[in-house]
Amino acid sequence: MKLTKRSKSIGGIIGIAVGAILAAYGIQGFIVYSGLSGGGVGGIALLLYYTFNLPIGIVTFILNVPLFVLGWKEVDKQFVFKTIWGLAIFSIFLDLFNGIQPFDFNDIFLGALYGGVISGVSSAIVFRFGGSLGGTDIVSKVIQRKYGVPMGTSALAINGVIILISWAVLGPKAALYTLVMLFVYGRVLDLIESGVPAKSITIISDRSEELVARIMVDLGRGATFLHGRGAYSCEPKDIVICVVSLPEMGRLKRAVREIDPQAFIIIQNAGEVFGSGFISNE
């Protein structure tokens, strides 16, 4: 049953709210509890909280307002409205969850680990429904448009400055574990956004048709033929291209070894795969 446009819109609003609440819970319950900082606007808000005891939620919202003004012409208006909604929920629950303690732990590494995982999951939920929780991404986009600096480079520079300030304010231990938290956050977010880990396989063989038949039967995967020609022999060859999940890699290699031990195999990481058996195109 297909969802109506109105149902999708309501679902998106609820989804962004759920992700924002989860993000606030992760920050207060693990990151703040462990005395860690963060990157972007959130990192600045945390440093102001540790230094002047300013409420994290209110400060986060206030710091994002000029960013919205700055980037109003640079980003999609619907994205801005969804981000304002998510940011409002996020800011409110950041202060409502103040002092929350999910369970008693005295390990800063666990705080960084759990904080990074929950932040990654919550951000993926918000992104899935077309929103965000604000931050310096808008600044990076403006810098890219005006000066041609890649967004990744400017974002890294901004976060680097914030981490250095965290080092000075919170000490080297907290700053280093903040880096651990940010790394875990990035890995979890990439994993969820990219879907099931997969490999793109290119096989050059004189027995390509037998290989494809075996792949379709044993793995249940489709494949594509590309017509090529050997540079040395000048003979025509059918090149096989297919995509498999990580658990299927062993069976694929075994099938190639059994049919054509002389086959040439190229294995590459597939960042995202859309289509049957992977992420739905819908």
Note down, in words, how this protein is organized.
It contains 10 helices and 4 strands, in the order H-H-H-H-H-H-H-H-E-H-E-E-H-E. The chain is an alpha+beta fold and 282 residues long. The protein has 2 domains: 5-194, no CATH class; 199-269, Alpha-Beta Plaits, CATH 3.30.70.120. The chain has a 4-stranded antiparallel sheet with strand order 2-3-1-4, with helices on one face. The longest helix has 28 residues, at 5-32.
**Percent range for β-strand residues:** 5-15%
Q: Give helix % range.
A: 55-70%
> H/E element string?
HHHHHHHHEHEEHE
The tally of beta strands, per DSSP, is: 4
Overall spatial form = elongated
How far apart are the first and last residues' alpha carbons, in Å? 13 Å
Total number of helices: 10
Number of domains: 2
Given the helix and strand composition, which structural class is it? alpha+beta
Largest sheet report: 4 strands, antiparallel
How confident is the prediction overall: mean pLDDT?
A: 86
Task: State Rg.
Answer: 24 Å
Query: Order of strands in the sheet with the most strands?
Result: 2-3-1-4
The residue ranges in which pLDDT falls below 50 over 5 or more consecutive positions are: none
Keywords: Cell membrane, Membrane, Transmembrane, Transmembrane helix
Membrane topology: Multi-pass membrane protein
Pfam family, one: DUF2179
Main location: membrane
Summarize the structure in short.
It contains 10 helices and 4 strands, in the order H-H-H-H-H-H-H-H-E-H-E-E-H-E. The protein is 62% helix and 11% strand. The mean pLDDT is 86.
